[in-house]
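Dear Dr. L.,

I hope this message finds you well. Following up on our conversation about the binding site, I have prepared a predicted three-dimensional model of the protein together with adenosine-5'-triphosphate. For your records, I am including the exact sequence and ligand specification that went into the calculation, followed by the structure tokens. Please feel free to forward this to your student if that is useful.
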Amino acid sequence: MARIEVRDLQVNLGGRTVLQHVDLSVADGELVYLLGRNGAGKSTLLRALCGMVTPAAGSVVIDGPVGMHLGTDTVHPGHTARRHLRWFAAASGVCADRVDDVLARTGVDAYGDRRIGSYSLGMRQRLGIATALLPDADALVFDEPLNGLDVEGIAWLRELLTDLARDGRAVVVASHLLPEVERTADRVAVVDRRTATPAVPLAEFLGAHPDLESAYLTAVSPEVAA
Ligand SMILES: Nc1ncnc2c1ncn2[C@@H]1O[C@H](COP(=O)(O)OP(=O)(O)OP(=O)(O)O)[C@@H](O)[C@H]1O
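The resulting structure of the complex is given below.
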């Protein structure tokens, strides 16, 4: 069995089916991206992977703990990054020594003693990424981690994500930033029509298309006018 196994997943939210018949398996060493338009269900799928929404049907199995970065607005603005990470480490049974490691690895150490409420979007993204790295988990989930990062940050995250996969972790990322996806993805899946296409190798997804944008626009269903 792969590190992450989703089988025939259905998620209902607010009385309607948001996802159904979703299958996804991600093995150690793989970097898999979820693509799809706004509201398609990428975040919902990632939240289901992390056990934060209950499936209406099907199953999600992850072998071991999962490190997750599901958004930048779930942290207490009055805390410093260091305090937030120490609290998170204590709450999740992670050795406090890792806090300094992840602060350094993400560059958050430069402002880790400032209150989170004063952080820019990119700074909060790095803190979210630091939080995901804290458990040193073999399964990692990131929702739009590139948003708000500056040029150095994007290059840094590209390297981090590929390193995490190269180190043998199963990594799933939702992103709209197709040039980045094209540079690093092992496989891509499209969340569309309340389900997800099989995650296929990037080269297979690209096919004869000149770039990922062209392949993606062909893969998604025609947009329905509001
Ligand atoms: N708590 C909720 N209650 C009801 N519906 C919800 C809830 N959360 C999300 N939805 C709906 O589920 C669908 C999928 O939303 P989701 O946030 O997963 O999309 P997404 O693909 O991540 O979008 P984006 O690219 O904009 O981040 C949307 O139609 C959204 O309105």
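In brief: The longest strand covers residues 16-26.

With kind regards,
A. P.
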